[in-house]
Design a protein that fits this description.
two-stranded antiparallel sheet, binds zinc ion, two-stranded antiparallel ribbon, mainly alpha
Length: 183
Amino acid sequence: MTFRWTKHRFAGGALALDVANSVILRSDATKSLDRFAEPEQIVAFAEASTRLGAERDRFPALTAPEAGERPVLLELREAIDGYFRSSIASGGNDDGGLAELLFACGTALRSFPLSESLGNATAHSALSLLAADTRERLRICGNCGWLFIDRSKNRSRIWCDMTVCGNRRKASRHYHRQKEART
Ligand SMILES: [Zn+2]
């Protein structure tokens, strides 16, 4: 199956969240898929994020990590997902997760000192998300479970991407209603 880093895959609204969202259906072990499992996909992600990512002006050129440094990026990714997901879900503090995130950011900044490296940029992006006004806008998509920033005026977004997850959920509700009506 061919895979492309389309605009939808950059629905997170921040580089750090798009990196976290490179694991598809994280909560379902039977369907979960790590798009970074193939190193060439990390290269393709880095390139695509400079065209499609919400922070493309801030990070206009990104290079993927070398093989030996890939684990540092993946650990940072897990720390980003772990902290923001748990703090959104609990609606508040997760100091243990925050400590892990800050540690992973520190490791990434030391391992990737160049600003154009994906690991460096992802750490900076993650640290920006800690600002209170951004932190309050972080959400978990009601359909796919991706993390995203709700930049809507009334802060009422529930889908990472209305055109994909919003429609899919609507179609599924329609299907279930029809099925109920038949039985
Ligand atoms: Zn979604």
